[in-house]
């Protein structure tokens, strides 16, 4: 459905018994032969003692790990997380091992289409799919956004005659926890997000003690470029640097040790300066910290604790020329709730919601908080300054698809009541303007001088729900005219997954009003029946003079034939058929965000 989110727990644990701390520098002995002769017997004995202690510690640790593993193996049963029969494109695929040249292209790739890489991230779970567990403590399960990340890439290059060669490749994002489970060759991390409170809490603790962290680094949500380097990210951990040519994960990016917490899946580049703004969410204080990274990616130039009193699941941060924009919605993580028998993740429909506007180098005292109507907004089109106002365009809903359904729930049973269609009616006819529970484009105008707030729906109730908004990236933080989204088919939302399927794309004209409805103009590019997309990205036309000079590229899956393609759609002629349909050599499972990066942005191409 609307978005995805993975709980950003931060916790580390290791087996550390009390140890002696020796700060002897053995090189100093060489300076005095007499002292060296006197101390050598003592030092040899000391070295042997320390060696014996280290061996003992290692033996204790190994024994403890084996005992805990034996306990988990006997007490917990891993069970396949059920898939709805309609979820034909949810099952994982294998790595193809060798990049494949594509020859089946219907139509023509435009000559102005840039050389570069289109890459999409998404879950591709190990061991055949997501797993739940059953134990004496109850049942615990994953949330639908989990599963180890896999990158799917299309490389576009052309010869001196302008003829394109397109190459496809895929590869898992091999984080440290991926390598750990792959080495064990079996599911090892216990699902610790939803289920019976005692089972969730026990799983959380067992993961922490056995592996030093309660949750896996799945790195399955988005990809982004900064300073010529490509990164894969899920916001429960640090980004993974990715080799552009091989898709190999090269390790964590912690900004030379300066950033030691989770990292948003949607960092934003500041217009004009090239700095990168990020944030990190944690289940313990400080709940939210914001960081500003230098344009060359080598330095954390500013860090700010927002000093919040709760952990909101804020998925995306916004920027303007001068400000950082933070969405504080009432979807929260609260460990105390689960200790008292409640849910770890919960959306409070009547909870407080606000938007924070802060100077880029400000502190917690400089944040201007604007109270807004309760909502759940995961994704932002854009933010920009308009006089005294900061304008925020996002995809807003009045309920949350996170954490999602419990295993085995029936069609629509897990939805809040207002998500369901009225008997005999379509979704768009079952709700009023004030009950738009699926994500739809929305506007907030926040006056930093007067404190006034204006908010409105940008489209009418008869339009399709929309999510995964994108714009021409050159306009991030600046006033823009156009936005694009994936169009959600509400009736295709599965009973065991929170993400709907997207049967088309929409182009939004922010400056053109639809006088009949009092909303903005929207054009739809709908796909063939039972065809759904993921990872749509905007591709700028080389030498394009206008904001919408370019294309949307997206992976699509045809359910009737199980064939996957990449569509290239001209954004100037949005209602027309795709200019090119590229048939892929294998299936690309449903996923999350994609991006197109032209060659000149990437150091290695």
Supply database-style keywords.
single chain, 605 residues, mainly beta, five-stranded antiparallel β-sheet, 36% strand, globular
Q: How is this structure best summarized?
A:
Its cofactor is Fe(2+). The protein is mainly beta.
What does this structure look like?
Belongs to the carotenoid oxygenase family. Its cofactor is Fe(2+). This is Carotenoid 9,10(9',10')-cleavage dioxygenase 1-like. The chain is mainly beta and 605 residues long. Helix content is 12%, strand content 36%. The protein is built from four helices and 37 strands. It has a five-stranded antiparallel sheet with strand order 2-8-7-4-37, with no helix packed on it. A five-stranded antiparallel sheet has the order 3-36-35-34-33, with no helix packed on it. A hairpin with a 3-residue loop joins strand 19 and strand 20. The longest helix has 43 residues. The N terminus is likely disordered.
Set down the secondary structure blueprint.
Blueprint: H1 33-75, E1 76-80, E2 100-102, E3 105-107, E4 116-123, E5 131-135, E6 138-141, E7 149-158, E8 164-172, H2 176-184, E9 194-195, H3 197-211, E10 222-226, E11 229-233, E12 240-242, E13 249-252, E14 268-269, E15 276-281, E16 288-293, E17 300-305, E18 311-312, E19 318-319, E20 323-328, E21 331-333, H4 335-339, E22 345-347, E23 353-359, E24 368-372, E25 376-386, E26 389-397, E27 440-447, E28 453-457, E29 466-470, E30 482-489, E31 501-514, E32 519-526, E33 531-540, E34 550-558, E35 563-570, E36 580-583, E37 594-598
Antiparallel strand pairs: 1-5, 2-8, 3-36, 4-7, 4-37, 5-6, 6-9, 7-8, 10-11, 11-12, 12-13, 14-15, 15-16, 16-17, 18-21, 19-20, 20-23, 21-22, 23-24, 25-26, 26-27, 27-28, 29-30, 30-31, 31-32, 33-34, 34-35, 35-36
């Amino acid at each position: 459905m609307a978005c995805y989110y993975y709980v950003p727990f931060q916790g580390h644990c290791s087996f550390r018994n009390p140890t002696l701390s020796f700060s002897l520098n053995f090189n100093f002995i060489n300076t005095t032969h007499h002292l060296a002769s006197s101390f050598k017997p003592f030092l040899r004995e000391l070295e042997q003692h320390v060696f014996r202690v280290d061996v003992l510690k290692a033996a204790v640790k190994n024994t403890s790990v084996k005992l805990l593993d034996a306990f988990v193996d006997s007490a917990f049963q891993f069970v396949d997380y059920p898939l709805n029969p309609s979820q034909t494109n949810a099952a994982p695929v294998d790595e193809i091992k060798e990049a494949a040249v594509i020859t089946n292209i219907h139509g023509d790739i435009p000559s102005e289409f840039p050389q570069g890489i289109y890459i999409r991230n998404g879950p591709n779970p190990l061991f055949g799919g997501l797993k739940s567990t059953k134990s004496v403590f109850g049942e615990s399960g994953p949330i639908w956004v989990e599963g180890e990340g896999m990158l799917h890439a299309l490389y576009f290059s052309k010869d001196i005659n302008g003829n394109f060669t397109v190459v496809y490749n895929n590869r898992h994002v091999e984080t440290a926890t991926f390598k750990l489970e792959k080495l064990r060759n079996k599911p090892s991390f216990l699902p610790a997000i939803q289920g019976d409170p005692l089972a969730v809490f026990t799983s959380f603790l067992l993961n922490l003690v056995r592996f030093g962290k309660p949750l896996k680094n799945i790195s399955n949500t988005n990809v982004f470029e900064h300073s010529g380097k490509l990164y894969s990210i899920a916001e429960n951990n640090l980004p993974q640097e990715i080799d552009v040519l091989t898709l190999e994960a090269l390790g964590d990016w912690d900004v030379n040790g300066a950033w030691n917490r989770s990292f948003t899946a949607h960092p934003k580049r500041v217009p004009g300066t090239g700095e990168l703004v990020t944030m990190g969410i944690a289940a313990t204080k400080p709940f939210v910290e914001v960081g500003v990274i230098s344009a060359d990616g080598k330095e954390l130039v500013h860090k700010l604790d927002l000093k919040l009193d709760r952990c909101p699941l804020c998925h995306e941060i916004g920027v303007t020329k001068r400000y950082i924009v933070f969405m504080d919605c009432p979807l929260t993580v609260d460990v105390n709730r689960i200790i008292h028998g409640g849910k770890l993740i919960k959306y409070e429909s009547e909870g407080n919601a606000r938007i924070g506007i802060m100077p880029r180098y400000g502190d917690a005292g400089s944040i201007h908080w604007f109270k807004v109507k309760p909502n759940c907004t995961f994704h932002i089109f854009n933010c920009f300054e308009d006089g005294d106002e900061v304008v925020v365009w996002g995809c807003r809903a009045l309920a949350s698809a996170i954490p999602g359904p419990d295993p085995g729930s029936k069609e629509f049973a897990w939805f809040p009541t207002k998500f369901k269609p009225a008997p005999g009616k379509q979704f768009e006819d079952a709700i009023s303007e004030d009950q738009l529970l699926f994500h739809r484009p929305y506007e907030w105008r926040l006056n930093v001088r007067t404190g006034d707030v204006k908010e409105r729906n940008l489209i009418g109730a008869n339009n399709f729900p929309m999510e995964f908004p994108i714009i021409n990236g050159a306009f991030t933080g600046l006033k823009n005219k156009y936005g694009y989204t994936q169009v959600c088919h509400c009736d295709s939302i599965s009973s065991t997954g929170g993400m709907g399927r997207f049967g088309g794309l929409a182009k939004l004209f922010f400056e053109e009003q639809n006088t009949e409805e009092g909303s903005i103009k929207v054009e739809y590019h709908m796909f063939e029946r039972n065809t759904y997309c993921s990872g749509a990205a905007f591709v700028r036309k080389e030498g394009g003079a206008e904001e919408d000079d370019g294309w949307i590229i997206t992976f699509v899956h045809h359910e009737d034939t199980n064939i996957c393609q990449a569509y290239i759609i001209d954004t100037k002629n949005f209602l027309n058929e795709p200019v090119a349909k590229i048939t892929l050599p294998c299936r690309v499972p449903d996923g999350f965000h994609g991006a197109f990066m032209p060659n000149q942005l990437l150091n290695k191409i």
